Prior knowledge:
Rossmann fold, 8-stranded mixed β-sheet, alpha/beta
Amino acid sequence: MKVLFISNDPSIxxxxxxxxxxxxxxxxxxGELHIISCADRHASEEQEGNLFLHPVHVWRLFRIPVxxxxxxxxxxxYDIEIVSAQDPFEHGLIALRAIRNTNxxxxxxxxxxxxxxxxxxxxxxxxxxxxxxxxxxxxxKIAHRVLPSAVGIRVVSxxxxxxxxxxxxxxxKEPSVIPITVDATVPSPVPLPAHPFTFALIAxxxxxxxxxxxxxxxxxxxxxxxxxxxxxxxxxxxxxRRRLARMTRSLGLDRHVIFLGHHADARALMASAQAFxxxxxxxxxxxxxxxxxxxxxxxxxxxxxIVGEVFKGYQDVLVAPVADPAALxxxxxxxIQDNAVRQELPIRAExxxxxxxxxxxxxxxxxxxxxxxxxxx
Length: 377
């Protein structure tokens, strides 16, 4: 097959990146793989065996028309059979337009639970207000246009598949559920920076509105009334960093919250905490849940992504509703008070994660087979 990926991951152009390694594995299974993505000025056209990399240097304002024109030219030049977009939003629209007047088939990947009400919802009476990007409403409209035109659809969780079938029914092809790649290797623990906490929580991820770190801060404020030596480490960077720092100060949590920024050894640091916590509004998958489970770290999470599919609430992990700091606080206190639960749940979560990864071991071939099906649809 000759396949073109329309990607939003510029790390593909870094020779030593995990993304580049994955693309090589996909290319080996597919036959001939071309990838187009926005990239910085240092990236250049490359060919490594049957993997072809096509960086595009363009201002964000002109991204859609420029990428569309470039993708269309590649389809014609290389006789591309399938164009797969990494999302049903801007990249899906680019792919839909690029295949016009060609014989290429449209394949869409869905990594985000964009039909969740929290994709556009800002909060409720129980939680802080978190303003979601206005662009999300427009993205949902684009998806409504793109997905019914796709010959094949890949999603990363059963949650997303169910939401798409409820929304679109027979207007779309039945999605294939193929998870994302997670390295099962568990790194040796790296100590967290010196701290006075007797119970250290850790949150790992991009500091963006959908992660709702605000709810974790609000939950911590509640917990400290009973357990004043609890603390939180926050790993990650993003647009919300300054606002979260201001909220930390306004809640009087300066001595209980430590922002560590981006760390390449996040998984190793994670293993040194007493519990992992996330309060995401929505997740398509939830890579960090798998990583925390492999580290045998007790997990507190909102009901998103692969929760319910890979991890069962109160059997493998503790689960709270989205935007409910009080429920998060109850779960934190539950782990502090119940040592048996804190020890037993991580063992079951690790087992669930390993079973899930074993079933997803042949991802490159599964992705290639999914793409191949679009040629016979």
